[in-house]
């Protein structure tokens, strides 16, 4: 004997569907008289690349159902993060939902809304009854994608990932400084401000090791990654600096030149914090007693280490 399955709670089922984060679209078409019609939908999906197909679904209770299933086509407008008001306009009853938005006819003919993240203009390929909704299968005739991030929807609320991320405090840029030492000399390069600097590079997604290796390779100098000499933060520039002593060999380089590692030799270094660091290195090299600096570009402390531990 079989028993009928327990009826599902529609509200709970809707909430469960809401666990899946989606984008927000406005689906548009023209009625028989050429009047633009549209509704807000997150039931949108790509179907096929060859042929180019997509689908949306419309409630059978919609007053616009007949126009969509009997029309020549429809457009899917993917709303951008700043278009919550457009979503709300097309989600509630209105005599003319298009009165407050700028739109134009798409290449295939359906209304396209300005400022969207992307749009697809389609001919109607197939109408598929599906319970209390009807699936509209569209063949894409034209489309466009913009750089505007799309508006999201999750658990009954709008989601704006790009705008939210932009408001989060960002960490400092990490900058690697390569102190290339060879026989009492250090490599200095033009800093672009009329002075000198040690070679530097910002660390990207590739990480510190790869950034340093790429920097050394760009200088066309024989050198090896060395030990950390200073770690300091420049709050004004929003940068975190890591300076490394890198043993090198004298010779011609693609950029800059080796100068004597003395207070006089590094006097033309523009950045005061960097110049002070090199002057400290010159003094420590003379005494053979090295340390690692921790702090900011203005003040900090030096932790002494034995040269043999470098």
From TrEMBL:
Pfam families (UniProt xref): Flavin_Reduct
Gene Ontology molecular functions: FMN binding; riboflavin reductase (NADPH) activity
InterPro entries from the UniProt entry: Flavin_Rdtase-like_dom (IPR002563), NADH-dep_flavin_reductase (IPR050268), Split_barrel_FMN-bd (IPR012349)
Matching SUPFAM superfamilies: FMN-binding split barrel
Keyword Oxidoreductase tagged: yes
Domain Flavin reductase like: 17-160
GO terms, biological process: pyrimidine nucleobase catabolic process
Record's keyword terms, sorted: Oxidoreductase
Transmembrane segments: none
Protein name as it appears in the record: NADH-FMN oxidoreductase RutF, flavin reductase (DIM6/NTAB) family
Originating species: Gemmobacter aquatilis
